[in-house]
Amino acid sequence: MEDVLNDEEMLWFQKSRMVSICDGDRNTRYFHLSTVIRRRHIRIETIQNIQGEWVTDSSEVRSIVQHYWQGLFSDERRAAVEARLLWDYFPEIASNDFEKLLRPVF
Predict the structure, then answer these.
(1) Could you tell me which of 16, 19, 20, 78 has the fewest CB atoms within 10 Å of its CB?
(2) 3 state SS of 54
(3) pLDDT tens-digit map of 63-96
């Protein structure tokens, strides 16, 4: 998780420097501040756990996010989604149409 945050921080730093270089030194402070503000805005500092309590500890936040994504792509969840997708392919048959299907063919 720290690697991802460091990579993201480096990306924003590089973006701000690239635009700063194109515009010259006159806007360096502006681009630095916009990068810092953006970084603060997109960072997850608090999150609500399953019990509805707000968690602020960074290690607990990391754990909650990891468990969520692991559960999201687990085999049980995938099977439920696949079953639901299969039912979407078959339209529901009305009762009068169902009775027609049960009649013998002559």
Answers:
(1) 78
(2) strand
(3) 999 988 887 777 676 777 676 766 677 777 777 7
Q: What is the pLDDT of residue 60?
A: 93
Domains of the chain, by residue range, sit at 1-43, 56-106
If we measure between CA atoms, which residue out of 72, 55, 62 comes closest to residue 3? 62
**If 0-12 CB within 10 Å is exposed, 13-18 middle and 19+ buried, where does residue 90 land?**
exposed
**25-33: Cβ within 8 A, 24+ apart:** none
Task: Write the CA distances from 73 to 30, 55, 65, 82, 88, integer angstroms.
Answer: 41, 23, 13, 12, 21
Give the pTM: 0.41
Cα 18 to Cα 24: distance, rounded to the nearest angstrom: 10
